[in-house]
Structure formats: structure tokens, C-alpha cells
Amino acid sequence: MPTKTFRRGLHVPEQKEPTEGKSAETVPALKQAVVPVNQHFGAPNQSLVAVGDTVRRGQKIADASGPMTVPVHAPISGVVKKIEPRIQSNNLEGPCIVIEAPDGGGPGVPDDDFMPPLDVYGCSKEDALTRIREAGIVGMGGAGFPVHVKLNPPPHKPIDFVIANAAECEPYLTTDEWLMSERAELFARGLAAVMHITGVSRGIIGLEDNKAHLKPVLEAAARAALPKGELVVQLLKTKYPQGGEKFLITALTGREVPSGGLPMDVGCVVQNVGTLAAIAEAFELGKPLIERSLTITGGACRTPKNIIAPIGTLIGDLPQSFIDIDYSGLKKIIFGGPMMGVAVSTALIPVQKNTSGVVLMDENELKAFDEAYCIRCGRCIRNCPCHLTPVLINESLESGDFDEALRTGLIDCIECGCCSYVCPARIKLVQRFRVGKQRYRNIQAAQPKPAAK
Fold first, then answer.
1. Which pLDDT tens digit goes with each residue over 10-48?
2. CB of 170 closer than 8 Å to CB of 337
3. Where do the CATH 3.40.50.11540 domains begin and end in the chain?
4. Is 359:341 a contact under the CB 8 Å cutoff?
5. CA 180, 18, 369, 330: dihedral to nearest 10 degrees?
6. Among the residues of 168-272, which ranges form H helices?
7. Homologous superfamily in CATH for domain 1-23+116-368
8. DSSP 3-state assignment of 268?
9. Which of 12, 156, 219, 262 has the fewest CB atoms within 10 Å around its CB?
């Protein structure tokens, strides 16, 4: 089977060797968990608990009404000590529920407050979508989009393909590789469940060819999970950002998501492998999304590894015997991968549902250069996988011309970082685009609302 890919993009150093092939280790029992109340794309949640309340692992502790909301659950059993604003992985303050475990924590089964198991093949579509929402499942590789919404497109947008995003194209990160290697059956059962819920008979697992050794493993898991369905493993060229859902769709189906559109506009649903595993656990165990696997690595990490951590874990709180951080050599902390992740100021930032990794960089990895003037080389244009003109977007933002910035593709930018990576002038284009988008949103929010008729 030939490998497939998309046009443009980059070949970047993978930096995956320190954690490749390593089993994930479960973090020691937490003394506290700092749980962000809002970990989804929609309207903000409200706390369902108060300071002093005792909560059980898996108990719902925050929720809101509205179609785009999902609840948050207690990742450990303990007592609510504080509900206060804390800095989160987006560098903004947000309300967090601080749970302390007087007994040292731990996932003791008698203390769990899970839902009863539910047969996804024996219940209605509405009940299945409700289970996914009540489990608090959001996309675990991106912006935290509620999964129950993604799996329920409007009737005029039928779905032809369910695509499992197994590319894991970000440098350094190997947590999805671990999951596919050691929990392939769980992930495949989640994929089969999603195909059943959406009524789709064709599923594709998109796997970069640097993980080709996993192809027979995934094919065997696919046959076991969906013996009569069409579920194939397609190898993809190892290239960044192959795992971006728009590029994944183009590579696997030849379809192109329109500007401002969603995968459902071209008949596709895309889910990360970690999300699919969480869906399987929500049905089979009644387990809400209270923990996730992630990669801890980088030159300032003496013990790089994949870990399984409760949501709300503070990496800086973990014992040195488990994660040994060289603070004297630590120069930069990135939540996520180095291309699309966000630099934060401290290791005391809580792990969230969409935290795929934490990269602890030392001086050798952090090449800091002052910005120079654009030399009009065109590299940002030649490498942009979205076929945009980053140089013109940047010029428009510098002049304050938001209309021109929008025309040249500001909103279509996925912030993959290709332009910044190849820029010989070291212009921080992605950071400028992020700020530009926020400025534009602020301008839009300040516009007077039209009077109701």
C-alpha cells in the first residue's frame, strides 16, 4: 500500500527517541489535583461543589447547560479545599477546583463514582451521545471540541468516513504511539463505537510511516473490533503537520475542507486515538474522562517518559524520583508539542484533557534569535499547508488593516508554526497571528448588537 500525504508542509527533526517504545507509567498517588472548571470549547461551566465538600473519583464537579458544554469530574477522591483562579496552559487565569486527598489519594475502586456500563450497540443514538457528553469527553489532541457535538452533524451533512488520527506528527510526543502499541484493542473498540453511532461503514486509521511497525497491530485490533466493517490502516508520509485534521482528510480521501468549514462539510469525522480510547472506556467501564496519557520529555528532563496522569496533575508537584527535572538547565516549558504548543512560565500548570505532552527544553534546544526584517524570500508561502500568504497577513496586522488580514487568511491559519519555523528573519509569525485573532475577536465583541425586531 503506497503512502499518502498532502501538499506542502515540513520535515522537522522528530526528537522522539527518548520516549519511543516506552510503556506509560502511572503517576504516584496525588496529594492534590487542580482541576480547571472549563476544559471545552463552549460556554463556561459552573462549579457543582463548594469548599469543604468531599468528592469521589469520577464525581461530576462542574457543568453547564448548552449544546457545546461538557462536565468536569473529580480525578481523585478527597476534599475540596479551594475554588479560585489559577493560571492554566493557555496562560490565562481561570477558575479551578483544588481537591486534596487526606489519605494520599489513589484510585481505590470503592471510592470511584463511575456511571454504569452501557452497551453502545444496544442503546439509542441519543443515549450514546448523552453518555459521551456525561463522560466529559472532548477532543484530546486539539481545542477541546465536545465530541458529542462532532458525532451528531445535521441531517443535511451525512458522514461517509470516520477517520482515526494516529499520525502524531508533533516532534517529541509519543503518547499516541504508546496507546496504539499497548492498548490497540481499546482504541479500535472506540473507533468501532463511533462508526456505529454515526452510522458509517467506512473507517480509516491514518498512521505516519515512521510508525509502520504498528500497522499489523492495528489491523488485528480492527478485525477484532469490527469483523464485518470496512476499517483500514493507511500509511501516511511522515511530515508535519500530517496530523492536522484538514490535511489528514485531504491525504486519506482527496477531499478538501472549505475555508471556514468543518470536516462534516466533506462527509468526515476525525477523532484522535486518545479520544477514541476514552470513548470506549466511557461505555465499557462508565468511566468519565478523568485521566490521560501524555509525554514528558525535553533536554531538561532527566527521566523522559510517557505517563498516565489524572486531569489536574501539576507536573512540578510530581516527586523527583518519578519525573526528574533539571531546573538549573530549564529554559522553556511548553504544554503540547514544540510546534503548536504554548510556552508557560512554570511547571505548576495543571494537566488538562487536551494536554498531549509537556516539553522541558534546555539551552541546547532553545535557539533564541532576535527578529529581523522580512526579506521577502517566500519560504512561509511555499511551506504553508493551508496555502496562505503569511507575509501578507503579518503586514496587514502590522498596519492595523484587519479587513486585509482576513482576506489574506488570518482566520484560516491553524497556527501550525510552519511559517515561523522556516522564516530566516526569525519573525514570530504564529504568535503575531494569535494576537491578531484575539484583537479581531475583541473588536467584534465591542461592536453594537443589532436591535431586536
1. 999 999 999 999 999 999 999 999 999 999 878 899 999
2. yes
3. 1-23+116-368
4. yes
5. 110
6. 175-182, 184-198, 215-225, 245-253
7. NADH-ubiquinone oxidoreductase 51kDa subunit (3.40.50.11540)
8. strand
9. 156
